[in-house]
Design goal:
The chain is an alpha/beta fold. It is built from 13 helices and 18 strands. It has 3 domains: about 5-115, Methylthiotransferase, N-terminal domain (Rossmann fold, 3-Layer(aba) Sandwich); about 130-355, tm_1862 like domain (pyruvate-formate lyase- activating enzyme, Alpha-Beta Horseshoe); about 360-430, Nucleic acid-binding proteins (OB fold (Dihydrolipoamide Acetyltransferase, E2P)). The chain has helices at about 10-25, 50-70, 80-90, 105-115, 150, 160-170, 195-205, 225-230, 250-255, 260-275, 295-305, 335-355, 425-430; strands spanning about 5-10, 30, 40-45, 75-80, 100, 130-135, 135, 155, 175-180, 210-215, 240, 280-285, 310-315, 360-370, 380, 395, 405-415, 420. The strands form 5 sheets. A 5-stranded parallel β-sheet has the order 2-1-3-4-5, sandwiched between helices. It is globular and about 60 Å long.
Amino acid sequence: MQRVALYNLGCSKNIVDGERILHLVKNAGYGRTDDPSRADVIIVNTCAFIREAKEEAIETILSAIQAKGDRPARLIVCGCFSERFRSQAAAQFPEVDLWAGVNDWEALLGGLFGASPDPCERVLSGPRATQYLKIAEGCSHRCSFCVIPAVRGPFKSRSIGSILDEAHWLEGKGVRELILVAQDSSFYGRESGTTLAALLERILAATSIPWIRLMYLHPHFVGREVLRLIAAERRICPYFDIPLQHIAEPLLRSMRRLPLGKGIRELIDRIRSLVPGAALRSTFILGYPGETEAHFRELLRFVEWARFDKLGVFPYSPEEGTAAEKLRPRPRRSTAMRRCEVVMLLQREISREINEGRVGTELDVIIDRVAEDSGYSLEARTRFDAPEVDGKVLIRNGSLRPGSIVPVKIVGASDYDLFAEVAPLRKRETQYRRS
């Protein structure tokens, strides 16, 4: 049997694409190997969102070329890097046999392997109980710093029917936490006559998956209907991942981001009013063209006021073809990095205070895996933590299979992680008999 090796780079949406690629080659009769040097087909599924992603894509292509060597193996590069730089990269890397972009990989790989991708089925990776479900492709926003619309095209919602089919399939595979993703999940359905709230209601009615999580919400499109639904439905995690990018209004205008400062503060107040206890996660760009020290200090004051549960910061990366690429003045990268460090030092204090406030409480967690730390038995997450990007709960006692959802008592806290003990069995059985 011939075998395929896959390098999968980038975001959760790319993870889904990579899993669909693996399902396609599986249908074509290929096996899977984790050793590219033994593979008959090597596939690199790339990202190209920022400079670091492009550099990682190039380094991975070089690794794949080395693994291919002089063997008659086929090397395929697909994804955002291929879509964005196909002609230049083809000349630079003649060892690559096929370049497939984000919009034509299904046709090109389907023709090459003589098989068609399934719109729902994938070869699942990562913890089986937690899986992503992509609800849309592309993006119609025109943020000045972002290349995604140019690479992936305009926003296009998947039909509710196809999403429900995939949700059913994932539930049948044992999924207990379903994470809905898109470039902007809050924009779902706006171009096709439906809404995110309508989609959520259909998923709730059609499945019994106990945890449903939303990722990547645009602050301009988080409506009251969704907030009320999240507040009323315990199965939807009260978790809001809303990249805000900045708070200084001159920068938000230049970034082409709405709402502006007042609207952002009103949104945060609205979320905390309608969904008490909700966790807020955001990201900011530091060193964007025109950012002054006064803008940066304004952002620090905003972070102190907002008290985000989770926060990420990134130095501005000028991207070819974006409106912001030519803007000046641009803070030095060292200045942007220093500002990132200052924000994260402040956020670390806030995160520690929030975590310490949870000591002594009981929280539901989903078991991810056996803990790597020998001092603990299990690694888990609360409803307030997404995989990979947020903190974890390290559990001292118990032997539970991944995907189990149980109450634990929080007995300790660090800057980003919690430490816990499993609640008594009788209480756990009573609360989670149906989950």
